[in-house]
Structures are given as structure tokens and as C-alpha cells.
Amino acid sequence: MKFKIALLAGDGIGPEVIDQAVKVSDAVAKKFGHEITWKPALTGAAAIDAVGEPYPDETHDICTASDAVLFGAIGHPKYDNDPSAPVRPEQGLLKMRKKLGLFANVRPTFTFPSLLDKSPLKQERIEGTDLVFLRELTGGIYFGEKGRRDGGETAYDNCVYTREEVQRLAKKGFELAMTRSKKLCCVDKANVLETSRLWRETVQAMEKDYPEVEVSYEFVDAVAMRLVQWPNSYDVLITENLFGDILTDEASVISGSMGLMPSASMGSDIALFEPIHGSYPQATGLNIANPMATVLSAAMMFETAFNLPEEGKAIREAVNKALAEGFVTEDLADGGKSYGTKEVGDYLAANI
Ligand code: IPM
Ligand code: MN
């Protein structure tokens, strides 16, 4: 098959980890007889520096003309401590999600048998953990009306959801649950928030369409707690934008390193694949960042965007082998022998 993939490396370690995912994807393409054309495009602080805009129209056009988008990371410290910056790299990411209609963010948390001792949690607590968050990505407090009043002394961010936005996300959640263990948890704060009551009411009304799925409703604060107590008790979790942002960072370290978990963002059309971690500015250019989350995002791309499970499996097996043999970056090396970003990428590609 022939694919055109938009390549948005972004900021910080983005370009370094993206290079490894390209290398690994090209190795997969060669092995299975596919042809990939990469279409690099600017985004984030890199795009602000070059053209004054974090998600330029040209980048959007490249994305819509592609079969999938592979994304690195966004964010630069020069903006983090400047609340008055007129344009911020993160705005590019939000604009991209909105314009590409990427309303469902799939963020898995799973463990690797060879890394059980690397988790901040006790081994018996995490064994068998294999859960997936479906985070709503284009609504809620991220996109509601925001501003200042009283001469700047009061600030507000509105959280708004429509029933239709909840339904389309929940539908993906029910469908995903049907392909897994048929357990779905709706995470909300319905004891306090009106938007959460709309979520709960909407999901409850959909239960009859999926009689085999066992649905639980849990408050977000309790989920935050249970995630570190019994992560293996969850399967598919659906939640709104901000709760999902926070809980998926919490969940992502259960596997042992933030540099391991991939993600996919989907809507009705094109899908985007990116690591859960951020741009890790301190490591930029040092060849120390763990490329595995981005490489596993490429695996998700083959599996879900191109419907090629064998190709995805080849990548996952190469990653498992590298982990089992200790061919890892310093975040996983426990002070022992470690390898560079590029060397890990080379190793993975060679093993495919
Ligand atoms: C994420 C990030 C973004 C978010 C930021 C960079 C805008 O934290 O993808 O989780 O909050 O959604
Ligand atoms: Mn986040």
C-alpha cells in the first residue's frame, strides 16, 4: 500500500524522537512492501519562530492531504513563564485538534513484563494493567469562553459540553469496550458539575444500545486515587478534556517511564498519532530522550489508521525485545548501561 504521512516534529525532543519513528516505520514499510511518503510541516514554537503562527494554514493543508499525521511534541520554556505572550505553541496543538476534528484521544496504559520493577507502584498492584482512556479533546474548559473582567482582577474559563459531543465520544468508548473486556467507566464530577451531569445522563441513555457492556460511573477524584491503588481494575475509561489530561499523565508513568506510552487522536476523518509525553526541553539535542512512545505511536498508526495489525505487531515486538535486552535510554537504565535516542531507533529498525 501507499501512504502519505504528515510529519509534525514540533519542539524540544520532538524532532529527535520523530526521526526514530520514521526510521522504524520505513523499516516496517520495507518489510511488508508498503511505500511511505513523508510530508514534513511546521508546528509549535518552531512554527512561531519561522512564520509567527503555531499551526500555519500550510501545515493544516498538508495534514488534510495526508492519510495520517505523526506528531512529536509541542512547547518551549521561553513561553512557559510569560503569561502575557500573545501566541503560545500550545495554541497550535489546540487549533490543530479543533480544525482536524480530533475529538477522541485514545491513551492506553499498559505494562511491559520486563519493566515491572521500574514502576513507581508495587509490582503486585500493576501486574496485568491494560487500560485505555478515551479523553474528549475538542470541548470542555479548554475551548469554552475565557477572559478577564474587573480590570483584569477576575479571570474565567467556561466549561461547556453539548449532548452530541458527549454522545460521539461515548460511542467510541462503548465500541472500544465491546472489543475488549466489555467494561466501561464514565469518569465525571456529577456530584458538583452540571456538565458532568449531562455526561452521566447521556451515557446512561446509551447503555441500552450496548447491553453487554457493564458501565460504572465514578467521580474523578476517586478515579485518581484508585488509579494508583488498583490500576488493573480498569479497562476502558471515558472522560472530558481536562480530567482526561490530568488522569492520563498520572496513568502514563505506571508503566515505568513517561517515555513509553503512545496515543492516537481521532475524529470522523484523519487521525493523529503522538507520544503522551511533552517536549522535554532540557533534553533537546542531547540524544537521551526515549523514542519508544513515538515509535509505539507509529505502531498505533499502522494498526488503527491503516488497519495493518501485523505491521503494528512487528514494531511492538521490536520494542519488547529492546526492553527485555536492556537496549534502552537512560530513563530506563537505572544508572546502568544506556543507549542514545538514535541508537535505540537504529536497534528497533534493525530488528524489524
Ligand atoms: C496533552 C498536553 C496538551 C493538553 C497541552 C500541551 C496543550 O498536555 O496533549 O496532554 O493539555 O492537551
Ligand atoms: Mn497533558
- What is the N-to-C order of secondary-structure elements (H for helix, E for strand)? EHEHHEHHEHEEEHEHEHEHEEHHH
Oligomer: single chain
Shape: globular
Percent of residues in beta strands = 15-25%
Query: What structural class do helix, strand and pairing data support?
Result: alpha/beta
The CATH superfamily of the largest domain bears the name: Isopropylmalate Dehydrogenase
Radius of gyration: 20 Å
CATH level-1 class of the largest domain: Alpha Beta
- Average pLDDT level: 96
Report helical residue fraction: 40-55%
Low-confidence stretches: none
Number of strands: 12
Plain-language structure description:
The chain is α/β, with parallel strands linked by helices. The protein has two domains: 1-111 and 258-352, 3-Layer(aba) Sandwich (Isopropylmalate Dehydrogenase); 120-255, Isopropylmalate Dehydrogenase. The chain contains 13 helices and twelve strands. The strands form two sheets. It has a ten-stranded mixed beta sheet with strand order 2-1-3-12-11-4-5-10-8-9, with helices on both faces. Strands 6-7 form a two-stranded antiparallel sheet. Helix 1 packs across helix 11. The two termini are 18 Å apart. The model has no long low-confidence stretch (mean pLDDT 96). The site of manganese (II) ion (MN) has 2 residues, from helix 10.
